[in-house]
Design brief:
This protein is α+β, with helices and mostly antiparallel strands and 505 residues long. The chain folds into three domains: 162 residues, Beta-Lactamase, CATH 3.30.450; 97 residues, Helix Hairpins (Orthogonal Bundle); 154 residues, Histidine kinase-like ATPase, C-terminal domain (Heat Shock Protein 90), CATH 3.30.565.10. 55% of the residues lie in helices and 19% in strands. It has twelve helices and twelve strands. The chain has a five-stranded antiparallel beta sheet with strand order 2-1-5-4-3, with helices on both faces. Helix 3 runs antiparallel to helix 6 and helix 10 runs antiparallel to helix 12. The protein is rod-shaped and about 160 Å long. The two termini are 71 Å apart. Keywords: Kinase, Membrane, Phosphoprotein, Transferase, Transmembrane, Transmembrane helix, Two-component regulatory system. One of its GO terms (cellular component) is plasma membrane.
Length: 505
């Protein structure tokens, strides 16, 4: 036996709201309610139409007989003499045939005949009767009372009188006069019985139809939503790591959109995963190289005896250089990690860009002088912008440092500053060795080097341009490059003067 507490716990675990979130359940409910409402509407419409039609047919049928009876009443002068057996028989037959009641009322509102023998000889006050007598209505007026199950009809008893005109010709005109009224009440029990039978049959048929709709709704909801189940299963397989193949599904417009979006996300994730693996591989290689060099130098010293001080000094200088290189790689990696954060990590202040650039170039001047490279700054106007001073200085420093390192002796590096009403622009131009066209799309990749041997000779880590690009993107700016081999390279950085969404400190 299941206890009450167990049942309560079971229903507590069933969250109706979560069930209704299911697209399959919602689709089933919509189809079922639509079908059920259609059946109910058809049921009501058909029965109401039958009822109206049956009442109209019954009314027309009785009206014809009442008009004939009214003529007979005038013919036999029944309103003055009710002893006519023929008329009485007709009245009784009509009442019995339609399970109703017929009252003959004269123009004094007196009941001269009542087939129920209840109101005979009495005076009846009825608005419809009085109106029929006064207005001389020539047509039968009928009223259906569905609540009590009868049709009431008022039929005027009309006689035609000839009126002679007082002219020479002696002509006469006819005039119709209402002498009385037939007040008839007809039972609609047969109509109600038929309606009851039809309603039962319709209910049985509707039950069958509702069951069919129920099964149809289940099958259709299952069939139409099966593609979504396949997509969900495929996505779960990808999530579980069983496969990384693109999801393929039926050619439904809605599922195609989901599949295309997921496959695009899958490709993006694959690119990021490949990039991460390549990055880890490059980091491992770059960090391992100085350590290997240090290990070789140390083993060389340890394997020798009575090594002169000059050799020790030379080896220690090489070891120190490798340690500095290792330190630079680590610092660049840390800077790059910080650059990967969102723009909310920016320390925005109002900065004089010209002064900032002059400070950076002053630091880079000794490096340029070693190779007799002419380093110049040209500013077309005073520029003040809302930027992160440290990160923008890293951008300018990395671009200028690369321009110096990958330049020729006795060459030149020119930094040009300009601004409009929205952006300021930093151009770093050089007379260096240039960048091949097939490498331009890869220069911002981490650890990518156009000339690996030359990069290692001059101490490059392959992270400078990646750091610069990330810093520019954090400021919602752009960085472009144009280069010609053996002629030089130009980097153009464009950054908004006013920081979007960041507060000036």
């Amino acid at each position: 036996m299941i206890s009450t507490s167990d049942m309560a716990e079971f229903f507590k675990q069933i969250n109706i709201r979560n069930i209704l979130k299911s697209l399959r359940v919602r689709f089933f409910i919509i189809v079922f309610i639509t079908g059920f409402a259609s059946c109910f509407a058809m049921h009501t419409l058909i029965l109401d139409s039958y009822e109206d039609r049956a009442v109209n047919v019954r009314s027309s049928e009785i009206q014809t007989q009442l008009r004939i009876l009214a003529n007979h009443l005038i013919t036999y002068n029944y309103l003055q003499d009710t002893s006519s057996e023929v008329i009485n028989a007709e009245l009784d037959m009509l009442a019995n045939l339609y399970d109703g009641r017929v009252m003959v009322i004269n123009d004094d509102l007196k009941v001269v005949k009542d087939t129920y023998n209840i109101s005979q000889g009495k005076t009846i006050i009825s608005e419809e009767v009085v109106k029929c007598l006064k207005t001389g209505s020539k047509g039968t007026v009928s009223k259906y009372d569905s609540a009590n199950g009868y049709i009431e009809m008022i039929t005027p008893i009309i006689t035609t009188e000839m009126i002679e005109e007082g002219d020479v010709t002696g002509s006469s005109t006819s005039n119709e006069v209402v002498r009385g009224v037939l007040l008839t009440s007809v039972s609609t029990d047969t109509i109600d019985t038929t309606l009851s039978i039809l309603s039962k049959r319709a209910t049985t048929l509707e039950t069958i139809i509702v069951l069919v709709i129920l099964v149809f709704a289940v099958l259709v909801s299952q069939a139409l939503l099966k593609p979504f189940d396949r997509i969900t299963a495929a996505i779960n397989d990808v999530k579980a790591g069983y496969t990384d193949d693109p999801v393929i599904g039926p050619n439904y417009y809605e599922t195609e959109q989901i599949i295309n979006a997921f496959n695009a996300l899958l490709r993006r994730m694959k690119v990021l995963d490949d990039s991460r693996q390549e990055f880890v591989s490059n980091v491992s290689h770059e960090l391992k190289t100085p350590i290997t060099s240090i290990k070789v130098l140390a083993d060389s010293l340890l394997s020798q005896q009575d090594v002169p001080n000059e050799v020790y000094r030379e080896f220690m200088q090489d070891i120190g250089a490798e340690i500095d290189r290792e330190d630079k790689i680590i610092n660049d990696l840390l800077a790059l990690v910080k650059m990967d954060k969102k723009a909310s990590g920016l320390n925005i202040t109002s900065v004089d860009v010209v002064l900032l650039t002059e400070v950076v170039l002053k630091r880079m001047k000794p490096i340029a002088q070693r190779r007799n490279i002419d380093l110049t700054l040209e500013s077309k106007r005073t520029i003040t912008a809302e930027i992160d001073e440290v990160k923008i200085s890293l951008v300018i420093m990395n671009l200028v440092e690369n321009a110096i390192k990958y330049n020729r002796d006795n060459g030149w590096v020119k930094v040009e500053l300009d601004a409009d009403h929205q952006y300021f622009t930093v151009k770093v131009m050089d007379s260096g060795i240039g960048i091949p066209g097939d490498s331009l799309d890869h220069i911002y990749e981490r650890f990518y080097r156009v000339d690996k041997s030359r990069s290692r000779e001059i101490g490059g880590t392959g992270l400078g341009l990646a750091i610069a690009r990330n810093a520019v993107l954090m400021h919602r700016g752009t960085i472009d490059v144009t280069s010609t081999v053996d002629e030089g390279t130009t980097f153009t950085v464009k950054i908004p003067l006013i920081s979007n969404g960041s507060k000036v400190l």
